Amino acid sequence: MTTAAANWIDRFQGLSSLEPHIRDILVNRSTIVSVPANTVIFGPGKAPENLLLLLSGSVRVQQLSEGGREIILYRVHAGESCVLTTACLLAYEDYSAEGIAETDVQAVAIPRAVFDDLIAQSETFRRFVFSAYSKRITDLFLVIEEIAFQRMDIRLAQKLLELAGGSSHVASTHQQMAAELGTAREVISRQLREFQRRDWITQSRGTIEIIDRAGLETLAKA
């Protein structure tokens, strides 16, 4: 096992304590893959062939409703795995959502056969898989709770502040914002017009400028 191979294992919390022979199996039977930005990595009706552990980049996992509306479920970042892929591998089911590379992505691809073998052989690997799985499921319940129970104006204010970070500029269309928040574009457009009426933001094509951060922050904390 090369030093480089060992290094990627140590980048994932929970894998660094793998038994030596399990580490050898994982390294020797997995491959490092690169995926360019905007690539559809998986989609509905397709069976997972690998568990991907992200080394760099970001993958957006989203659901498309029958009416054509996109809802972003979560993102997978470096040091993480995809809970939907894990669920499909465990249940031998096809994907019900799609995963898209938001940036150039580098990942370790663990083939299904290797995943099955290590789940059966290694308590440490099982703990790694199910720990990541349980954390993401908890996150998904929070997403459901927000969509079902939290006021849209509050969620939109929070999302604008999150996307802006330390700046006042948000590069996003109304459709993209709707997908982020799991609602219709018309709802976002109506709420943004209200924010603009209150002089909290200004809008131009594909961009939103925050001009009264304090107003948005007050609403976001309501």
From TrEMBL:
Keywords: DNA-binding, Transcription, Transcription regulation
Record-linked InterPro entries: cNMP-bd_dom (IPR000595), cNMP-bd_dom_sf (IPR018490), Env_Response_Regulators (IPR050397), HTH_CRP (IPR012318), RmlC-like_jellyroll (IPR014710), WH-like_DNA-bd_sf (IPR036388), WH_DNA-bd_sf (IPR036390)
Signal peptide limits: none
Pfam families given in the database record: cNMP_binding, HTH_Crp_2
Cyclic nucleotide-binding domain segment(s): 14-136
Record-linked Gene3D superfamilies: Jelly Rolls (2.60.120.10), Winged helix-like DNA-binding domain superfamily/Winged helix DNA-binding domain (1.10.10.10)
Domain annotation HTH crp-type: ranges: 150-214
PANTHER family membership: CRP FAMILY TRANSCRIPTIONAL REGULATORY PROTEIN, HTH-TYPE TRANSCRIPTIONAL REGULATOR ARCR
Name of the protein in its database record: Crp/Fnr family transcriptional regulator
Organism: Pseudovibrio japonicus
